[in-house]
């Protein structure tokens, strides 16, 4: 209990005396007695102990508040300034600490210790984000996901600030503000939030053919991931590695999730936004807290300047990828996220990623998108975090020794000693100096040419890779893309914008354009715009699929068991054991949060109450109900939705007699993804995947 030093005059509204500041409500300080624990004294920011944190300082019991109340003013002032500007893009994010471990040395290609010292564990901080929505928006809109990694290496911080998609919308950073203004809420009406499905976005896209490849990715299920733990990550740009002899090799970075790729279906993503706006954040939190530490492999594609010259596209163009069939991926390390941040604001919010944070042995390329980013991030951190000293914040500071002569500024935390704040100097033997041997050296690439604002001819093919991506997908994925395009364009009010987008699609795939045109009920197929470079067919790349990269596993997945009073405890246990043995987390859902009284009289605690825990939040469901329980739930829409949605979202289900009754009430006709309670092993096996063939029965896809 907090001890208060000096009794103050009686105050409070209650009529029954006596009241003092150590007993503000005259109730024997019940509030604090109930809260329990051993507490440090509460103080002001200056360290003064606060005697009363419940009442402001007033004249008389019911009189005005005094300006003199420095405790009140300090508390409110600090509160008023608690928010900092949110990121203009990627405002909504979730992050975790972990480590990177190199498993294969790239010594031949780079001098960077993080890429040469096999077995060394480098601390990392990783922030995942959506792009368009504000900090308080939901986790599951259709959107690209940011995948930003800060490596605290022995040679300084290296930030690999990527996305879950290997290409980007635009080729030149000068277009970034236009792209972002087009995708954000429309400025006159202030909506839609966190969505691309509106006129300004598609207007910009229809006039920016270089974006069409990225659009194919954005309309695929990559932008509705099941979990942040089941996404790939990409550095996007071509970077350079430089070895000890000064020789350079180009490199693309890829993160591959150990749990494989997995996405939701669109209807599920939409419903998740309501069922659990924090679905991805909670999923990452629960996995890390539960000891299921998410893991990724780091892969690289390495190629020389000469090889790059022979590619049928420009490696400096961020709207292009390098097919893995052309340059295979070499796995060189792994990253594990094993610690949730202690404080969301201090770490996840204040972390400042800058692609310009690089270490010796890694260098930039001339990609004009990357070059613009090298300026933008440092600039944005200055206004977002309010001071050039943001690098001193614990989450941003390097973990290797660092020293320089930069001084002062807002919120300076350091107290530098000595007379010398310049270099060279002879007055202070320990003042920091440049180190030509160990320091970063830019690769001396030779550049020449006239100054101009020109887009290279080698960037002009906007459709071949869009076509490659679409044609590399399974039929299910192609149907999802067509439906996503129809959904997005049906939210566009301006007919000529819809038509212009369909026109572009004709260069990607004539059949896709027809499906979308049909989905929008266009009278005729709009003309395709003139293409500077007509698309060419490239061999399909299965590495671009999601379904092809799904892992048949229950690891990292969650199985929900719906029970009622009178459910058979042995049957519940059987499912639980089998699912847990396969690596899943199991959660119990009951009509009441207190749980259910099983047939053997034992109480089974629930992890969630039915109305607030729909099947949408699970990867597969089991339904174990007593006859009475099934009878009651037949009239409960949350139970009917539980069944319908699990089926509609292509999930494996296992049902006993009660569950089957509920299925019938929901109008669901079981298929081979619905298992009887005698077939638990088959259910567990089925739960490792989704039943895509079912989809044609449950919704009309474009
Ligand atoms: Fe960016 C944030 C990824 C192009 C300007 N970007 C930001 C974040 C990610 C990316 C993951 C969030 C970092 C975090 O979690 O704090 N951005 C990308 C990728 C791009 C890209 C993969 C293309 C390959 N970005 C890009 C361009 C510009 C910016 C071309 C400007 C010229 N990006 C920003 C920014 C942000 C940002 C405005 C907002 C908040 C921040 O930087 O720290 O400066």
TrEMBL record:
Cofactor(s) the protein requires to work = heme
Query: Polar residues: which segments have biased composition?
Result: 42-56
Q: Which residues form the Catalase core domain?
A: 43-431
Indicate whether Cytoplasm appears among the record's keywords.
no
Catalytic residues? 90, 163
**EC number(s) in its UniProt entry?**
1.11.1.6
Any idea what this protein is called?
Catalase
Organism whose genome encodes this protein = Luteibacter anthropi
